[in-house]
Amino acid sequence: MKEEGKVWKEGIQEYPFDFERYIEERLREINDLDERRFAKMVLLEGLGKAIQCMEEKYGQLQRRIYEELQLRGNRYETMMTIIEKQHYDPTNGTLFPVIPFDLDGFKGRERGFLGTVFLKMGWEDSRQFQETGTFSGVVWQMEQSRKAVFRVAPAERYRKRVEVLYQVFQDNQLPWSTVNTAYLDQFYDVFLVDVEENKELNFGEDDSIMKGFGLEECEIWFGKYSDFVYYGWIPLWNIEEISLESTNFMMPCIDGIYYEHVFVMDQRKEIDGYLIQGNEDIVEIRHEKDRILVKSSKDTFDKWKAFHMIQDIKTSLDYTEPFLSNRKQDSFFRRMAEESKVSLMTWMDLSRRILEMDIREYLDVTGYEICGPFGRNLEKSEIRERFVGNLSEGGMNWFIPESLFPMEERRILLLKFKAKKLKHYLNDGMIRFVVSQLQLEIGEYRCVGVLV
């Protein structure tokens, strides 16, 4: 955010106008020095002070209107980055692994599972990597090698984690804002496959020589993808999972046949958001100012889960990758739009909503097109081959049920983007993020993005 006291001018003041300079320039056109001196005294000391006073009055009015339009929901913004696991800083206190078990490793947790790799490539290249499916290589043990085949598959545990977060938002009856999963979509699990029988190895007693294998004991030949595959990386986000027990809170009050448990927000973290995960013991979750009321049929509980969404992020040594967030840029017009609940389907308003998202370092939006539904005039269109956005497998809100109006029958809102960083591996992910969020807001079209 810009320095305090000036942010309110964004979107209100179209351009600065210096009345004092303008008067000085006009005075130079008076050749008679006595007349110029008299005009300067009248205009600058008289009219100039009146203009200055009027500008201050308008400034106070604009500021008051701006501050009355308080934005809601900024406690629940997500931020995400990726790091090498060895660089994780447990003392940071603001960034946590998306999957806590990533720090311990998943070796032996699933049959044939070896580990996870990160692919630093765009969406189309990632799809080809996934479609290739298997790669050759060798495994090493006791200085002996054995040829093997390795299978790669998207790391579904990260997608499931986002689904859990979405359900927690539903439990708390809070509006959902698309989480930018551009990083999460690039993680792939690696499995060991028997090269002779072309099936996953069975790690039983008769195959004990292969027990305990990880990526460290393997050499995989990824071919043209080799330079883009990274080992030992994990995603972090600003969400801390907390376990709650009734012994840490005051005795609940009785509301009829239910008990109301009161969770008071930490005043030192008043800018943060807190969410209670629903379970079979919880009847209702209600958010009030600085506290959360949970209605339950039980007077005591343990192992209830809460999610602490931290907004004041700190970085640590070697946290060098960019942060991706669903944070929106503050502006007067955004506050006005959210207060009035009116969404204008104009190009100016649409481009404003796009550029408010955290994509400015990567993309510019250049235009749009209204096209017919799939299966008609777009079936053989060349531009369809370059779609990056909200296709069935490409959206970032895949878990949200489709509305009554089928997506295939909607006309297409085709958004055109230009990359600021050519061939950057996050460009496609940013388009998918924008399109997925707009799809939540626009129900009459099927939103799709393309890089031009």
How does this structure look, described?
The structure is a single chain. The protein is α+β, with helices and mostly antiparallel strands. Helices cover 23% and strands 27% of the residues. It has 7 helices and 21 strands. It has helices spanning 19-27, 33-68, 123-132, 156-171, 332-340, 347-355, 427-441, and strands at 79-84, 96-97, 113-119, 134-141, 144-154, 187-194, 199-200, 218-220, 229-231, 233-237, 239-244, 253-255, 258-264, 273-276, 282-288, 291-296, 304-309, 324-325, 363-371, 411-419, 445-451. The strands form 5 sheets. Strands 3, 4, 5, 6, 7, 8 and 9 form a 7-stranded antiparallel β-sheet that branches. The chain starts with 18 loop residues before the first helix and ends with a strand.
How are the SSEs ordered, and which strands pair?
Elements (H helix, E strand, L loop, with lengths): L18 H9 L5 H36 L10 E6 L11 E2 L15 E7 L3 H10 L1 E8 L2 E11 L1 H16 L15 E8 L4 E2 L17 E3 L8 E3 L1 E5 L1 E6 L8 E3 L2 E7 L8 E4 L5 E7 L2 E6 L7 E6 L14 E2 L6 H9 L6 H9 L7 E9 L39 E9 L7 H15 L3 E7 L1
Parallel strand pairs: 20-21
Antiparallel strand pairs: 1-10, 1-18, 2-10, 3-6, 3-9, 4-5, 4-8, 5-6, 6-7, 11-17, 12-13, 13-16, 14-17, 15-16, 19-20
Q: What is the compact description of this entry?
A:
23% of the residues lie in helices and 27% in strands. It is α+β, with helices and mostly antiparallel strands and 452 residues long. The strands form 5 sheets. Strands 3, 4, 5, 6, 7, 8 and 9 form a 7-stranded antiparallel beta sheet that branches. It has a 4-stranded antiparallel beta sheet with strand order 2-10-1-18, with no helix packed on it. Strands 12-13-16-15 form a 4-stranded antiparallel beta sheet, with no helix packed on it.
